[in-house]
Amino acid sequence: MSESEKPSAYFIPLGGERYQATQAVSGAWDETEQHISSPLGLMVHTVEKAAASRRDDPLQLCRLSFDILGTVPVGEVHVDVEVLRPGRTIELVEARMSHRGRTIVILRAWALAEFATEAIQGSSLPGIPRRDDVPPWDATSVWPGGFIASLTSNRDHHEPGRARGWTSSSLRLVDGEEVSSFAKFCALLDVANGVAVRADPAEVAFPNVDLTASFFRIPQGEQVGYDTHVSFGPTGLGLTHSILHDAVGPVGSLTQQLTVRMS
Questions:
Q1: Which range of residues forms the domain containing residue 184?
Q2: Helix (H) and strand (E) counts in the chain
Q3: Where is the Acyl-CoA thioesterase-like C-terminal domain (predicted)?
């Protein structure tokens, strides 16, 4: 594919919260399927759009829990949003992504009102090296697919299952739509499972069946920093745990439950 043929966005809007995935979404485990990271960001974008359309004081999305029910081809998806628990200062929102009537991902998101807590803000979570101090990393040396190829990454790999690094993308999440920095940040969260590989993915499959991100501070900017540990148990279970960072410092945590299978 020539430079002129490469997609400039991950999704093309089709109207009515329907979106066409481009080849930039193609996955790392199977290039005919979507890498789930961009779809998760698309769901956050859709939740934010729905909130802006129904209230003048949108709340802060702070806990995102995605259940990944299956794989999805590089094709059209649809996102529905429903408020499960409405409120003036606290809401629980659910979004469902589907493909041809089959639900692919369910998101439940808590959204909370802003309050002035600058005087007591702080965190004991350690920082990670600035991006400029971390070596560039060609993630395509480990992972195939259009999505991974669309990223710019830096990584400090300590040992199998342990790494710190940064990732960003210059592509638009949705072509022709204004997308928040938070949604773009969330579109890179699932990358964490491939940053600190514990085993060669050509020999061991370890896809995640969920992703839960919790924030104590809304990230600034769109580059994502990961301080990641990957653990495998003796019976096919695995866990990826990351502290998430922006350029200022830690912003929250992320966990991904893995199904680990020898190829």
A1: 3-114+134-262
A2: 4, 16
A3: 154-260
